[in-house]
Amino acid sequence: MEIVGHLIDGKNVTENIATMPLTNPATGIQVSELAMASAEQTRSAIEAASSAYPSWRATPPAKRAQVMFRFKSLLEKNSTEIGYLIGREHGKIPHDAEGEVQRGIENVEFACFAPEILKGEFSKNVGPGIDSWSEFHPLGVVAGITPFNFPVMVPLWMYPLAIVCGNTFVLKPSEKDPSAALYVAQLAHEAGLPHGVLNVVNGGKEVVDVLLTDPSIKAISFVGSTPVAEAVYNKATSEGKRCQALGGAKNHAIIMPDADLPNVVKALTGAAFGSSGERCMAISVAVVVGQQTARDLITNLKTEMLGLKVGGPQNNNNDFGPLISVEHKKKVISLIESAEVEGAELVVDGRLAQLNDEDRGFFLGGTLIDKVKPNMTCYRNEIFGPVLCVVHVDNLEEAMKLVSEHEYGNGACLFTRDGEAARYFSDNVDAGMVGINVPLPVPVSYHSFGGWKRSLFGDLSAYGPDGVRFYTRRKTISQRWPSRETNDTSSFSFPSS
Question: Could you give the CA distance from residue 443 to residue 438 in angstroms, rounded to a whole number?
Fold first, then answer.
């Protein structure tokens, strides 16, 4: 059976002391074996990155950017193969996988602007004959730990920008669907990336522990669940490393009585059930203002959901695919069951979804739960599945109070025709990414992605301008060239202009 290995110092490495099966979640059938990296193999990847760093740091930003231009072209040329690998191990439908690849490519495009984004600032004559300027310097060897739900896009949030900033990189993809990330990293080498600049090590906790403690690693980027994000952040920072750790979410969409209901229904259906709800920006709570609005929304959502097509990636007409594993499916079902027990109303039961004969994997249909209360388990917890909870409120202030009081603050949306309400919402809602009549307000590559509260540990968000700041440190230089005729005297006061 095929062995999925590692990329260390430009070489494919499949030697292992342990493996784990990789399963197609749409069929439940094993497709390959994953070589689990040892601590020693992880350290060899770090050593390769350390060895490559001095020469890569000295490479002009324009030449680093040229590699990214070629990398972008290869990603576009091989997007179908990348999508296939995503579908085989994650179960994403081709149209969804293609969207993921495209959003990743957009971050590579941003990295192509390296000469511009790395320009410092210059001030002439800040004092008599004194000039001052600032520079962006790379950190050294940095690492990324990425989740299963976006096996290509999230790594592309990290290493293209880190690398054009002059760093070298060690990537630890999710052990559940690593093949696409490994293939894309190989394309980066095909684009001209020197050996050792980008390394990929697959594995579990043993790999993570080395990355978090090895003194050669200067910074850690992480995306995953909040408990793990918090643990990674605490450990990394205790080891003196810079860390950005993006965690979970419970994204609310507030629907006002004046909202365009047909558009709201379409938007919520895609945002709640796309990618089987396995998105940190998925809408998982609809907060409906007014009882009549709630009744109309439920009626229309129920009708829309009856037309959803659930199935495997072999059919591009399917709307969404399976959950990542049987264990995760059981977890989502347990949260659905808890809602029933705690008094919510199950309007559409995804456990009863009709499937084709070939779809024998970990499928769950779209689920709609009405009359959810803030104290219910399904409301408090991130479900990370195709489940939409509906909460009833009387006014916008009550709706926004729910958003503010939840422990997560990743994203929040408002559907309305009222400009005053929209402005009030965007100014005051306690969330890092905000949509007005936009159900998935994921920032474009030249802005930055990051939530508030327990959705993000660290001071800087992912990619965009914050990404540049995260992967660099600023150095400020003050320079003076006195003439030979100048007879300076000692000064014992703090200098000023």
Answer: 11
The answer to whether the beta carbons of residues 395 and 366 sit under 8 Å apart is no
Q: What is the pairing mode between strands 456-457 and 29-35?
A: unpaired
* Kind plus residue range of the DSSP H or E element containing 34: strand 29-35
Residue-wise pLDDT tens digits, 220-250? 999 999 999 999 999 999 999 999 999 999 9
Output 209-212 pairs: Cβ under 8 A, ≥24 positions apart: 209/39, 210/39, 210/42, 210/43, 210/46, 211/42, 211/46, 211/143, 211/145, 211/170, 211/172, 212/236, 212/239, 212/241
Residue 466 contacts residue 456 (beta carbons within 8 Å): no
Q: Which string of DSSP letters, residue by residue, matches 91-135?
A: ---HHHHHHHHHHHHHHHHHHTTHHHHT---EEEEEETTEEEEEE
Reading the block at residue 102, the tokens are: 């495209």
Q: Is 243 a catalytic residue?
A: no
Q: Which of 164, 167, 171, 169 is nearest to 146 (CA)?
A: 171
Rounded Cα gap, residues 482 and 495, in angstroms:
16
> Could you tell me whether strands 130-138 and 122-127 are parallel, antiparallel, or unpaired per DSSP bridges?
antiparallel
For position 37, what pLDDT does the model report?
A: 96
The CATH class, in words, for 251-436 is alpha beta
Q: What is the mean pLDDT of residues 311-322?
A: 96
Task: Round to whole Å and give the CA distance between 391 and 341.
Answer: 17
Give the pLDDT of residue 495. 66
Give me the pLDDT at residue 497, please. 56
Six-digit token pair at 218? 């200067």
pTM of the model: 0.95
- CA atoms within 13 A of residue 96's CA, in its CB half-sphere: 32
CATH 3.40.605.10 at 3-247+455-477, yes or no = yes
Helix (H) or strand (E) holding 187: helix 179-190
Indicate the pairing of strand 367-370 with strand 345-348. antiparallel
Domain ranges of the chain: 3-247+455-477, 251-436
The token duo for 411 is 């994203």
What kind and span of H or E run contains 157? Answer: helix 153-164
What three-state secondary structure class fits 478? strand
pLDDT at 304: 97
Write out pLDDT tens, residues 429-465: 999 999 999 999 999 999 999 999 999 999 999 999 9
Q: Per the residue annotation, which of 112, 165, 243, 280 is the catalytic one?
A: 280
Amino acid at 28: G
pLDDT at residue 1 in the model: 82
Residue 1 burial (CB < 10 Å; 0-12/13-18/19+)? exposed
CA–CA dist 497, 490 (Å, integer): 16
